[in-house]
């Protein structure tokens, strides 16, 4: 089925509320999913794949700061989806970059990582340069790099495959964020790296994708839509005779 | 003439703590910056043209009509579906499933394929899947009594009694006018570069204007079908006096709370207009115009009919107070600060609705000064966090700007009496009594006051342990406060964004919220049906399609339709009422 951007964002917000997200987190998560979807990154599919996981998460297990100083921070995402509360980890990076010119934030142990782009778009719109990258653990090992220019809410993105898998035991479940006040941090690759470019999404291509989504509507799978509606329904109060009077209308509108 | 020295001094706007009180918001009137006024001015200035391209109605008035709206920049079509409706199914509530008329306004052409898609979906409204080129989706129910009276009169070759339109100012009242992506229609973001409809709600108002024209043509069609020999068209004065109703409930309240930056923008423009008008040095002509406008508004309010006791009293209080305003205006020397004197005198002596009426009329006086503000009604809505703000600074901001929120008792039975929620029935917003009705655990968090007070307590506690903390340090520990923190941080820069009231309180009147939003739309004839349900009229007195199509030369006259008066029927003719109550010739 075709839906509008506003409709998708609105339903996601209600669905996240139904899952039990705090209001601000529900709004941010909905923005992330809708942003991803209208820029061609299948945000709804990603959400759908992560839904069972989200429903099983402990809402009290919040991102925890393991280390921080003026320039750096390392956080433990507690194995949760970036949709829940990860915005504050990125805000920490933003605050440090504002204060010191440049910041590095590592978020370990988190899921649905690509969705973070939706929130980074908002930070970049507030005037900060951002680069974010993460590696996916599946074979072949891939690395995604996304860069936002300050003031631009649309990024440039590249996806690489990693030829030589490093011999280390660190799991690939983290995100690295670099933010800078004055320096552009766009994806760029020298010739002699062990990386093969798999995909390149330019800012103009992603902007055009958004324009098409607004023009033609957004295609969403009926079953996923229905599932989101069921979750949103959790916030609704079943009707009763008493509740009907709570709308304050009369019983007859013939005049 | 504007004094240049004065013009350079910063504008002094009224404080938010005065403007954003519920009772004052609930006293607002439509003004020349209201959306219907702005739209009509734009249509006249840019020579918009409206034509009928299809009118397939049967003798009962049921069928399809299509109107073309041509602007210098684009072409749109209003597509109307009129259908039979049993009286017992006629409900203004969002839980209704059928209506007398459903319609959509489409960007671009309507070919057979799109028409078929719309015919299958528009009548279903929320239950349909609407096309992404539909900008506005709406439906309306008949005023049965007006409809019958109008058809009877016109079929008999007579004109309907104008008093019927004073009691109920329309043949149709809309029960929702959807825009911005609802049920698959176009997102508002798509209109951002559209010079015709980039202002908030302008597309919705254009859709309603087309419905008004359809209602005239449909009622004339019915009269002609019934009695082709004797039927007459509706007199021009009655056409003009015919508006479109709207029936509205609590659904408007969450919008006001969930779009604080937009509301702040609207109110800022209105307050700016008032401040600009106040510092104009009046000339004798301005004083005379103000007297004329006050007389007209007084007569309009005197004619306004509502069964609601409180609104009747408020109308009567304004009408009773306005002769003193006329006397004041006629007797006070013409000093440079006359308008400020008037407002200060009014604040001491006039009821709230009369005070705001005076403000509305002052804004009306100076089109050349205030009309440019209509282009500032839109805003990018982003409640952004300032994570690097010292937490102590945030605490100070709350205590400075949200004193109203900290002053309420949210623990008492009275102070926490209501809770707001959405019903499983089409998500209709409702109010329930806390501790007495089920559903409080699913409360919609639109009462901002208690949330700010809660966050303020948490911030004070955190500062005890970490006095040098930043906002982000606090939120990483207490993330549930994120939404309120960024709301406060954003709205201290847009101080007309939050309504200064406890929306849980037993004495809270949702009607005030509804009226505030409706006044910005341009509503008149406020007719509350309860403290949370209201009927209003839009476009009553507005220029007609044929007047628009004639490309008006006198745009000031074209724009001068606020506070319309009941026309007078004299023999077979209907004429405008003069301000003295006599019939003008």
UniProtKB/TrEMBL annotation, chain A:
InterPro entries: DUF3726 (IPR022201), Mal/L-sulf/L-lact_DH-like_ah (IPR043144), Mal/L-sulf/L-lact_DH-like_NADP (IPR043143), Mal/L-sulfo/L-lacto_DH-like_sf (IPR036111). GO terms for molecular function: oxidoreductase activity. Pfam families: DUF3726. It comes from the Bacteria. Transmembrane segments: none annotated. This is Malate/L-lactate dehydrogenase. It comes from Franzmannia pantelleriensis.
From TrEMBL, chain B:
It comes from the Bacteria. This is Uncharacterized protein. It comes from Franzmannia pantelleriensis.
